[in-house]
Amino acid sequence: MKVNVSAAVPAVPQSVETVHLIRSSCDLHGPVEPPRAGYSPTILLVEDDDDLRLVMTYFLESLRFTVIACADAEAATATFQRIPTVDLLMTDLQMPGRSGLELAFDLAAVKPSLPVLIVSGSILQDRTLTAIRQQGWAFLAKPCKFDSLVSVIHSLLNPIYPLAA
């Protein structure tokens, strides 16, 4: 497997990383559908764990998503201000600084139609889960199976990018 990691773009905060991974014969999750014409949604991935962020970026890019990976809510907010065409926010719930839930509310205030997927390895309080559901957002507990992740992402993006057969 070849891995090519490029440096952050100078105009983007340093905690944002652009990762380009070249897929070879390594297959983490079974066959990948070929890209559909015009189907390249952009996911803003916010995860403070460096290793998990890299793996998730690789996995999502292998499915032909465009991924902008950030290590914290502050970098994600700055990136979203520069690139408001993000199609989906996928964020960890508990991070240093602002939480993923706070980030989601901040970005949804700017773009109310933004689909949000919040992931967490922590047990959620009822009021947090209620807040997520009231917004029409999705939640997945970590660790999650890749097929579950893909299913939730596709369901969130389907109104934007219908999955025509």
Give a written overview of the molecule.
- The chain has one domain (14-21, 37-157): Rossmann fold (3-Layer(aba) Sandwich).
- The protein is globular.
- 30% of the residues are buried.
- It has helices spanning 50-62, 73-82, 100-110, 126-134, 146-157, and strands spanning 2-5, 16-17, 19-22, 42-46, 66-70, 88-92, 116-120, 138-141.
- Helix 2 runs parallel beside helix 3.
- Mean pLDDT is 77; it is low at 1-35.
- Helix content is 33%, strand content 21%.
- By secondary structure, it is α/β, with parallel strands linked by helices.
- The termini are far apart.
- It is built from five helices and eight strands.
- Strands 2-5-4-6-7-8 form a six-stranded mixed beta sheet, with helices on both faces. It has a two-stranded antiparallel ribbon with strand order 1-3.
- Strand 4 (42-46), helix 1 (50-62) and strand 5 form a beta-alpha-beta unit.
Gap from first CA to last CA: 30 Å
Shape: globular
- Based on the structure given, which CATH architecture is correct? 3-Layer(aba) Sandwich
So how many helices? Answer: 5
The CATH topology is given as Rossmann fold
Largest sheet: 6 strands, mixed
Which value, in Å, is the CA radius of gyration? 15 Å
What's the gist of this structure?
The protein is α/β, with parallel strands linked by helices and 165 residues long. Helices cover 33% and strands 21% of the residues.
List the helices and strands and how they pair.
Layout: E1 2-5, E2 16-17, E3 19-22, E4 42-46, H1 50-62, E5 66-70, H2 73-82, E6 88-92, H3 100-110, E7 116-120, H4 126-134, E8 138-141, H5 146-157
Parallel strand pairs: 4-5, 4-6, 6-7, 7-8
Antiparallel strand pairs: 1-3, 2-5
